[in-house]
Prior knowledge:
Layout: E1 2-6, H1 10-21, E2 25-29, H2 33-43, E3 47-49, H3 52-58, E4 61-64, H4 68-77, E5 86-89, E6 94-96, E7 102-104, H5 112-119, E8 125-129, H6 135-140, E9 150-154, H7 158-170, E10 174-179, H8 206-215
Parallel strand pairs: 1-2, 1-4, 2-3, 4-5, 5-8, 9-10
Antiparallel strand pairs: 6-7, 8-9
Amino acid sequence: MVTAIIGTGKIGTAIATDLTAAGQSVVLASRTPLHAAQLAGELGASASAADVADAIERADTIVFAVWLAAIKNLLRAYWRELPGPVVLDPSNRVGPDGEGGFARTLPDGVSSASVIASLLPSGTHYVKAFGTVSAATLASQAHLVPDRGVLFYATDDDVAARTAERLISAAGFDPVKAGGVDQAIRIEMYGDLHQFGGLNGKLITRAEAEALLADGTPLG
């Protein structure tokens, strides 16, 4: 199984590092091909680099580890290729504010997931995952003992759910389904199940995650 990671910024690098450490095959693509090649070299034999088209063609799963605006452009460009592989989306409803921070890019109540799902061709296996914590947390908090930290995911697709479970587990975290795509807003930034939302910076355990899901009312 090959996972294409499109984007080699902080999130893409952290995901690639965690997956290759577990022996997962990844192919990296970036708008800066040299950076993708350098990162692949650092990660070892489980990683390779390619251009975006080749990475997508080779992949069983595509992780679009770029800002929402860039994802929308990529979906338009590679629309015909998307119904086959699983599309894994770690995006949030924010963008850079030009001052080193983040600014909301969507109205209240609108998730990045809902925007992306509306642009995907029918039959695409889509899942929101790997965006519920920071890149620093992904990089430093994998394989905690005795209780792994949780990464939530959201999907309406069984194939995508199995893929998210496999990759999150391989990366060293505990996968917990928050619900379907209509619940994805809860696991995006500012949502009640996001590290930088209702979780107040905390990485939680499965028991804590299940208690929150049982409690019910999303803060969005």
